[in-house]
């Protein structure tokens, strides 16, 4: 009997040990909780740098109660999959495009309607205005995760394998778009969109499955898409925000004092990220140009005409979208 009790005791100790190592830091202090953040681009991306700075400050201000680990380069999974993990509570945080949130609440469509922001400054004013607070709160109540910071991802432009002489040359070509119905609709109106995850784009262009993609200069360069599609055209059709998203399951484990630090530092990281963005675009262009890319202007009018009509149709379908749309435009 005594032997059985000892064995049982040892078994319980092993189990307890397993539990600890799951939630504590690699150092095994037992008091440090690890926060993993999934990120689908590289460590030199402005969003990574802003998030790292947030992480360092958070670790410091919570005096070692947390360790922030950012898993870059889409190592964990695509944005869509990491968002599902955050929703299910198996991952603490991720950064995703607001386009992916449209699959959970269609009101998110309005945050990235084509040509809805006039400039980076306009977008920053909108992000800081609280215009999205109500929507984020609704997500918090309904989805099991919460957007906690909104970052810029600049303006998206089209890039192609073959050179284009006029916008009409786009006809019949296929471009990768994000996995969002509103982006597929937009590209169908303009062209033919093929939804896929970010990580698949390079190979898809290389293999001729698509003729190109559309993205900001930073991602274009960071993921070396210029190697397979060297012609970059300033269509500026979208400025899709990215959001840092946290799991409610994880947030519920955090004491109020730490939650306050967490939210404050993430708020501050928004402005840091905007500051880093402009330089990031310059660096990205230089890298891509050195790798053979050319950046050209293109007549935006045909894109704008199609997109404005689509915007009108979209906001007419939903009162809450219309309200957010009006707030965005009021700050233009
Ligand atoms: C941008 C954005 C990412 C997104 C990507 C995409 O780079 O910052 O969050 O994943 O576009 O096109 O998928």
Could you explain the architecture of this structure?
With about 325 residues, this protein is an alpha/beta fold. It contains 13 helices and eleven strands. The chain has helices spanning about 1-25, 45-60, 80-90, 100, 120-130, 135-145, 180-190, 200-205, 215-220, 250, 255-290, 300-315, 320-330; strands at about 35-40, 65-70, 95, 145-150, 155-160, 175, 190-195, 210-215, 230-240, 240-245, 295. The strands form three sheets. The chain has a five-stranded mixed sheet with strand order 2-1-3-10-4, with helices on both faces. Strands 8-5-9-11 form a four-stranded mixed sheet, with helices on both faces. α2 runs antiparallel to α11 (about 255-290). The longest helix has about 35 residues, at about 255-290. The N and C termini lie far apart (about 75 Å). Mean pLDDT is about 90; it is low at about 1-30. The structure holds alpha-D-glucopyranuronic acid (GCU). Alpha-D-glucopyranuronic acid binds near residues 40, 153, 198 and 242.
Compact summary:
The protein is an alpha/beta fold.
Keywords:
alpha/beta; four-stranded mixed beta sheet; 13 helices; 18% strand; binds alpha-D-glucopyranuronic acid
How do the helices and strands line up, and which of them pair or pack?
Blueprint lengths: L1 H22 L9 E6 L7 H16 L4 E6 L7 H10 L4 E5 H4 L18 H10 L3 H11 L1 E7 L4 E5 L13 E4 L3 H10 L1 E4 L5 H6 L5 E4 L1 H6 L8 E8 L3 E6 H4 L4 H35 L3 E4 L3 H15 L3 H12 L2
Parallel strand pairs: 1-2, 1-3, 6-7, 9-11
Antiparallel strand pairs: 3-10, 4-10, 5-8, 5-9
Helix pairs in contact: 2-11
Alpha-D-glucopyranuronic acid (GCU) binds next to loops.
């Amino acid at each position: 009997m005594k032997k059985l009790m000892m064995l049982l005791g040892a078994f319980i100790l092993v189990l307890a040990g397993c539990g600890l190592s799951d939630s504590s830091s690699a150092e095994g202090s037992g008091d440090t909780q690890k926060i993993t953040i999934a990120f689908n681009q590289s460590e030199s991306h402005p969003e990574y740098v802003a998030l790292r700075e947030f992480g360092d400050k958070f670790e410091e201000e919570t005096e070692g109660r947390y360790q922030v680990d950012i898993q870059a380069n889409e190592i964990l999974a695509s944005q869509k999959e990491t968002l599902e993990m955050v929703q299910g509570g198996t991952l603490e945080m991720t950064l995703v495009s607001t386009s992916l949130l449209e699959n959970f609440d269609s009101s998110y469509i309005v945050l990235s309607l084509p040509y809805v922001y006039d400039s980076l400054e306009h977008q920053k004013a909108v992000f800081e205005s609280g215009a999205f607070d109500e929507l984020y709160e609704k997500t918090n109540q309904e989805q099991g995760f919460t957007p906690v910071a909104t970052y810029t991802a600049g303006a998206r432009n089209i890039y192609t394998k073959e050179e284009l002489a006029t916008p009409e040359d786009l006809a019949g070509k296929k471009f990768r778009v994000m996995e969002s119905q509103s982006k597929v609709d937009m590209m169908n109106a303009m062209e033919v969109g093929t939804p896929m995850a970010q990580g698949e784009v390079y190979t898809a262009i290389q293999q001729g499955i698509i003729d190109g993609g559309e993205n900001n200069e930073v991602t274009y360069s960071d993921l070396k898409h210029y190697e397979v599609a060297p012609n970059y055209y300033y269509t500026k059709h979208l400025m899709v925000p990215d959001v840092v998203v946290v799991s409610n399951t994880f947030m519920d484990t955090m004491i109020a004092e730490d939650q306050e630090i967490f939210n404050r530092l993430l708020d501050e990281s928004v402005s840091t990220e905007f500051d880093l963005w402009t330089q990031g675009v310059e660096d990205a262009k230089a890298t891509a140009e050195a790798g053979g890319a050319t950046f050209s202007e293109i007549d935006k009018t045909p894109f704008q005409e199609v997109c404005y009509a689509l915007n009108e149709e979209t906001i007419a379908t939903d009162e809450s979208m219309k309200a957010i749309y009006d707030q965005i435009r009021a700050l233009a």
